[in-house]
Amino acid sequence: MSHHHDHKHPELSGKNLKISIFLNILITISQVIGGLISGSLALLSDALHNFTDVVSLIISFWANKMASKSASFSKTFGYKRAEIIAAFVNAASLMVISILLIKESIDRFLNPQSIDSTIVIVLAAVAILGNGFSVLLMKKDSKANMNMKSAYLHLLTDMLASVAVLLGGLLMRFYGFYWIDSLLTAGIAVYLIVMGYDLLKSSFNILMLFTPESIRTEDLVKTACSLTEIKNMHHVHIWSLNETEIHLEAHLDFHHDISLSSFNEILEKLKVLLNQKYGINHFNLQPEFNKEDTKEIIVQD
User: Fold this and answer.
1) Which of 133, 132, 151 is nearest to 62 (CA)?
2) Whole-prediction pTM value?
3) Less packed terminus of the chain by CB within 10 Å, N or C?
4) How far apart are CA 213 and CA 138, in angstroms?
5) Strands, DSSP E only, in the chain?
6) Tens of pLDDT along 230-261?
7) Residue 74 to residues 61, 79, 220: CA-CA distances in angstroms?
C-alpha cells in the first residue's frame, strides 16, 4: 500500500517554532530583569515558566526536524518517534511545573508581599502579546501531531499565566489584593495538570507499544478470521509507531496448504479490510499451515 508524505508541514512548523522560541527568550529576559527590579515573585516565577517553555520549544523544534529525516540501514524506522518523545518530555515538564506553581502559590498566599505593580502590569501585558502571537502561529500546527500540540499547550499556558499576573498586578495596584495572584496561579496550575495529563498518557502509551485505544484485539482477530481461507490469527502485536502509523504483526493459520500467489491475494484483501476498519497501514504477517505452536492470540515471547 502506498503512502504519501507531505514535507511542507515540518518546514512550516519549524519556522513557527523558531519565531516562538525567539519571542519567549525576549519575554524571559525582560521578566527576570523586571522581577528583580520590582521584587515581584510573580514575575520571576512566570519568567521561570517561560524559560522552561523555551527549553520545551527547542526540544519540539529538534524533534520536528529529526522526524523528517529518512530511514537508514542502522535506523530502519528513521526518527519517526522523535516527536512522540518530545511530546512526552514536554507533557511531563508541564506536570512538574504545575506542581511547583501550586507550591509557590501556597507560599505566596501565606506570605503576601508588597511589590511594584506598575512593572508587573507592563511586563505581563508584553508577555501576553508575545505569547498570544505565538499561540496563533502554533494553533493550526497543534492539530497535526502530539509534538506540535505539546508546544502549543506550553505557549497557551504561558499566555494564561501572564494574564493571571496582569490581573494580579491590577488588583494589587488599585485594591491591594496581593493574595489574588496566588489564587490565579493555583487555578492555572490545576488547568495545566488536566491538559498535560492527557498528552502524557497518550505519548506514554505509544512509547510503551500499547495497542491503540481505538482497537480491540479480539475484534480484530474475529475480523481477520471472517475471511474463509483464514483458520486462526495468533501471536498478535499491534502498536503505533507514531500518530500516523499503526503496525500489525501476527501469525496466520490457513485451512489449506495454499500457494504463495494465493497467499498474496488473501493478504491484499486482509490489508484492505483491516485498514478500512482499524486504520492499520503496516503489516507483517506470517503464513502457517498445520504448524505445531501456541495458538493464543497474545503470546509472551
Assistant:
1) 151
2) 0.75
3) C
4) 27
5) 230-240, 246-254, 282-288
6) 999 999 999 999 888 999 999 999 999 999 99
7) 23, 11, 32
